[in-house]
């Protein structure tokens, strides 16, 4: 396994490889993650939900579902289903990222916008990539709807969880490792985050993002969930010419709790610049009210930061939930 600060050429691993992992990945933390005492305190102080006066803005959240674009081997397209769930069509494959089609997840109010792509309208799913095991990114009821022969690509340490649920094609990767499926390459890259699904399993599995590349070298980077840090420059150097970066912009307040693990909109713009990507599509907002900021604030701040940085407006793909975009050849 590689350390977070090393810069190495990714090792390509075989699909479905059986591997042994350490009991903890806590040494990979980019900073201190929220502890149990922190979580109890913010719930008690009621600071993890937007102010009541801002909830009227939920009706203005962007929601415009449309059909998933038809795609062949030469097409790269993305459709935002909501939160960190995307339908990515690349190299003739249909790939889901962190699929959450459930109306609600544990310890969180129901989603405030519907899923942008009805399950019945999905093309056959060839593969799923998971960034980490938090409930808003790894949703057991959604995965249960998939055929058990679906290819799952997951962080190190998460394979056993998937196999216990009957999935037979599970590939676990460490940072700076890759796997290939039908001509599409899946690179697992670092993030500044953490993992936990219960009080007793913090950092038992890894966390990270994914770079998907087709045979023509077109690249889509899915950041998953991450705070701002040096990882973005490292990813940009390892994967030059990223065509599209799917970057989180929400769930950032209060900063004393979430600053180390969630980018705010201004940091997302810095991350985009660090990556050297050609376009950015924001995500991780407008779906679940996970934190203190008002529902519309992430996009308002992102647009202001984008303009202040002098970036071209056409490079910002601010899709509505359910919206799609096809990457130009």
Task: Give a short summary of the structure.
The chain is an alpha/beta fold and 329 residues long. Helices cover 17% and strands 20% of the residues.
Write a structural description:
- Helix 4 (231-238) runs parallel beside helix 6 (265-275) and helix 6 (265-275) crosses helix 7 (297-308).
- The longest helix has 12 residues, at 297-308.
- The strands form two sheets. A seven-stranded mixed sheet has the order 1-8-9-10-11-12-13, with helices on one face. A seven-stranded mixed sheet has the order 7-6-5-4-3-2-14.
- It has a single domain (77-320), classed as Metallo-beta-lactamase, Chain A (4-Layer Sandwich), CATH 3.60.15.10.
- The chain is of the alpha/beta class.
- It has helices spanning 36-45, 140-143, 159-164, 231-238, 255-258, 265-275, 297-308, and strands at 11-12, 76-82, 85-90, 93-97, 127-129, 151-155, 170-173, 177-181, 184-189, 209-213, 219-222, 244-248, 279-283, 324-326.
